Amino acid sequence: MTDLTDLSTTEAHDAFRKGEATAEALVRASLARIDAHDGKVNSVIRLDREAALEAAAAQDKARAAGILAGPLAGVPMMHKDMYYRAGKVSTCGSSIRGDFRPTRTATPLLRLDAAGAIDMGTLNMAEFAQNPTGHNRHFGDCHNPWNLPYCTGGSSSGSGAGVAARFFAAALGSDTGGSIRLPASICGVTGIKGTQTRVSRAGVMPLSFSMDNVGPLARTARDCARIMRVISGHDPADATSAPEPVPDYEAALTGDLRGLSVAVPQEWFFEGADEVVVKGFEASLEVLKARGAKVARVSCPSLRAIGTYVAVVSRVEAATIHAQWMREKAGDYAKHLSGRLYGGYAIPGTWYVEALSARGPLLRQFCREALADHHVVATPSLRMRVPTLAETDIDADPANWARHMAISANTRPFNYLGLPTVSLPCGFDDRGLPMGLQISARPFGEGRALMVADAYQRDTGWHTRAPVLA
Questions:
Q1: Cis link prior to 90 (omega < 30° from 0)?
Q2: In what residue span(s) does the Amidase domain sit (predicted)?
Q3: I need a surface site. Which of 139, 274, 334, 461 has the fewest CB within 10 A?
């Protein structure tokens, strides 16, 4: 058999289910790879080695008795360190919560537990999930496993880097302005944020309460489809979670794109884009066309207002959540984060209310522009080639601010709109760093977006490539 760490989420589960690999062997393979290589990548904050091995042994015993725990049984996973596990420290990437032990477990973790996933611990992240790069002054910067001086994307930096480095099969991240899709794109893995309210956020540290999303990063669209089915659905502990029924996302992965129409907005997403990124994106459209899809260039003037309003909402809500700590412990934040939060306090309340009240009308307008006559929207995940950590370090040099913020320019609009969006690998740039293709669908159209991503991956091998860490 191949190296167990090369198995995707669904492959790892299948190997366990068929008796080709024990859960203990899968976990030990992950632990060995972390021990060998995470000293360079710095993706892990807390490694629950013994607990993971105990859970694996219990699953092996159950399997021997003919009991299979669920659709993720045997699969090693780790999660961004903002998902609460009762009694375990959850730092949220900060010193302020360096010894915080929650009394509850996050609903998404409970659902993964019930599906048989094996939780091995928590992952590095941007401090309080508030930067798009992978910098963290408290736990050290996370490094891109494809080329260590380069950034991983954030804020789910450890999730993206760890999945790419084959430390574990999949991880949960969170996405408020692109924090799942950015590390997915920059590290060469697949990640999805669902429709706003699709997945419960109960027991997850908030950043922006009207734009936060929970979702997975994994190797393939099929992996993400399976995990999304497990974690999605209404939760009485989260009054904002949607009552919409959760379909079988995997069943939608037919590979057939005949009759499907893909809209490519001409505004916003290509402004100042690097040539290699545009070429990679155009090549990805040809793959979709070969599968039967039609591509149409559309005009979306609504994007200009959306790009402005998204920053207003996220900054005001984040500043509100952190108000007490900012009064009492402002010096415990990284400079760039305290500066960002102070900026939130300077935004007039009327601007915030305007930005909130415009969300519905702008969603309807964008859907008329891009999705009334088309099934999905396709864009590059990033306009730019992957930058280095040094080029995006705004604490070291505030002049890096424009490049720092440009990283998330193409992901932020879909948080404001609340649309389900997938990022998947679509090639490598001229420096050997991954590039991402972004697919968005109508509200609660996660299955459609994943279907397109899966069809693309059937005809390409970018998602199968792994970085060399030796």
A1: no
A2: 26-448
A3: 461
Domain of 189 in residue numbering reads as 4-464
Measured at the CA of 8, the angle between CA 419 and CA 162, to 5 degrees, comes to 75
pLDDT tens string 202-252 = 999 999 999 999 999 999 999 999 999 999 999 999 999 999 999 999 999
* Separation CA 72–CA 77 (nearest Å): 10
Catalytic site residues? 80, 155, 179
| Alpha carbon distance 50, 47 (integer Å) | 9
Q: How do strand 118-123 and strand 76-80 relate by DSSP bridges?
A: parallel
Determine the residue type at 378: A
Determine, yes or no, domain membership for 469: no
Residue 470 belongs to a domain: no
CATH number, domain at 10? 3.90.1300.10
d(CA 318, CA 316): 6
Tell me the two tokens of residue 363.
Answer: 């969603």
Q: Does the CA dihedral 104-108-113-115 come out positive or negative?
A: positive
Helix (H) or strand (E) holding 424: strand 421-428
Name the one residue in this structure whose structure tokens are 């492959």.
11
Which among 364, 404, 360 has a CA at the least distance from the CA of 384? Answer: 404
What's the total number of domains in the chain? 1
Q: Are strands 376-380 and 434-441 parallel, antiparallel or unpaired?
A: antiparallel
Calpha distance 185→379 (Å, rounded)? 12
CB 131 within 8 A of CB 156: no
> Is 120 in contact with 30 (CB distance < 8 Å)?
yes
Tokens 């105990």 belong to: 54
Question: What phi and psi values does residue 80 have, to the nearest 5 degrees?
Answer: -50, 140
pLDDT (tens digit, 9 = 90+) per residue, 399-445? 999 999 999 999 999 999 999 999 999 999 999 999 999 999 999 99
> Closest by alpha carbon to 56, among 68, 74, 31, 34?
74
